[in-house]
Amino acid sequence: EQFTGLEGKFVELDETIHSFKEVVEGKHDELPEQAFYLVGGIDEAVEKARKTGGEEEQEDEGSGDEDAEQTGEDNEG
Q1: d(Cα 25, Cα 43) in Å, to the nearest integer?
Q2: Is 69 helix (H, G, I), strand (E, B) or coil?
Q3: Do 48 and 35 touch, CB atoms closer than 8 A?
Q4: Region labeled Disordered — which residues (predicted)?
Protein backbone atom coordinates (compact mmCIF):
# COMPACT_ATOMS: atom_id res chain seq x y z
CA GLU A 1 0.00 0.00 0.00
CA GLN A 2 2.84 2.34 0.84
CA PHE A 3 4.38 1.98 -2.62
CA THR A 4 1.36 1.33 -4.86
CA GLY A 5 -1.29 3.43 -3.19
CA LEU A 6 -3.62 0.44 -3.42
CA GLU A 7 -5.10 -1.37 -0.45
CA GLY A 8 -3.58 -4.79 0.16
CA LYS A 9 -5.62 -7.98 0.05
CA PHE A 10 -5.59 -11.01 2.28
CA VAL A 11 -6.15 -14.27 0.41
CA GLU A 12 -7.10 -17.36 2.39
CA LEU A 13 -4.73 -20.31 2.10
CA ASP A 14 -7.37 -22.50 0.41
CA GLU A 15 -7.97 -19.85 -2.27
CA THR A 16 -4.22 -19.38 -2.77
CA ILE A 17 -3.72 -23.12 -3.30
CA HIS A 18 -6.72 -23.33 -5.64
CA SER A 19 -5.49 -20.38 -7.70
CA PHE A 20 -1.93 -21.67 -7.86
CA LYS A 21 -3.10 -25.14 -8.91
CA GLU A 22 -5.17 -23.71 -11.77
CA VAL A 23 -2.25 -21.60 -12.99
CA VAL A 24 0.18 -24.54 -12.84
CA GLU A 25 -2.30 -26.75 -14.71
CA GLY A 26 -2.39 -24.17 -17.49
CA LYS A 27 -6.08 -23.36 -17.11
CA HIS A 28 -5.40 -19.64 -17.49
CA ASP A 29 -2.57 -19.57 -20.01
CA GLU A 30 -4.61 -17.22 -22.19
CA LEU A 31 -4.60 -14.48 -19.55
CA PRO A 32 -2.12 -11.66 -20.05
CA GLU A 33 0.60 -11.27 -17.45
CA GLN A 34 -0.83 -7.92 -16.36
CA ALA A 35 -4.05 -9.64 -15.22
CA PHE A 36 -2.15 -11.23 -12.34
CA TYR A 37 -0.61 -7.97 -11.12
CA LEU A 38 -1.90 -6.78 -7.73
CA VAL A 39 -4.91 -9.09 -7.52
CA GLY A 40 -6.00 -11.65 -4.94
CA GLY A 41 -7.30 -14.99 -6.19
CA ILE A 42 -7.55 -16.35 -9.70
CA ASP A 43 -11.14 -15.16 -10.04
CA GLU A 44 -9.94 -11.58 -9.67
CA ALA A 45 -7.26 -12.15 -12.31
CA VAL A 46 -9.85 -13.53 -14.73
CA GLU A 47 -12.15 -10.56 -14.08
CA LYS A 48 -9.30 -8.08 -14.49
CA ALA A 49 -8.32 -9.71 -17.80
CA ARG A 50 -11.93 -9.52 -19.00
CA LYS A 51 -12.17 -5.83 -18.10
CA THR A 52 -8.81 -4.83 -19.56
CA GLY A 53 -9.41 -6.97 -22.64
CA GLY A 54 -12.19 -4.62 -23.69
CA GLU A 55 -9.94 -1.63 -23.14
CA GLU A 56 -7.16 -3.19 -25.22
CA GLU A 57 -9.58 -3.71 -28.13
CA GLN A 58 -10.45 -0.02 -28.02
CA GLU A 59 -6.77 0.89 -27.97
CA ASP A 60 -6.14 -1.38 -30.96
CA GLU A 61 -8.89 0.41 -32.89
CA GLY A 62 -7.30 3.73 -31.93
CA SER A 63 -3.89 2.65 -33.15
CA GLY A 64 -5.46 1.96 -36.56
CA ASP A 65 -6.47 5.62 -36.70
CA GLU A 66 -2.93 6.64 -35.84
CA ASP A 67 -1.63 4.51 -38.71
CA ALA A 68 -4.03 6.29 -41.06
CA GLU A 69 -2.78 9.65 -39.84
CA GLN A 70 0.82 8.57 -40.35
CA THR A 71 -0.01 7.39 -43.85
CA GLY A 72 -1.55 10.79 -44.56
CA GLU A 73 1.61 12.50 -43.37
CA ASP A 74 3.72 10.30 -45.62
CA ASN A 75 1.62 11.30 -48.64
CA GLU A 76 2.12 14.98 -47.90
CA GLY A 77 5.89 14.75 -47.60
Answers
A1: 15
A2: helix
A3: yes
A4: 47-77
DSSP 8-state code for residue 6: S
- What is the C-alpha to C-alpha distance for residues 1 and 17, in angstroms, rounded to an integer? 24
Identify the DSSP state of 77: -
pTM of the model: 0.61
Topology (CATH level 3) of domain 13-76: 1.10.1140
What's the DSSP call for residue 12? Answer: -
Single out the residue of 66, 63, 14, 77 nearest to residue 40, CA to CA.
14
Closest CA to 19 of 48, 44, 52, 47: 44
Predicted confidence (pLDDT) per residue in 22-34, tens digit: 999 999 999 999 9
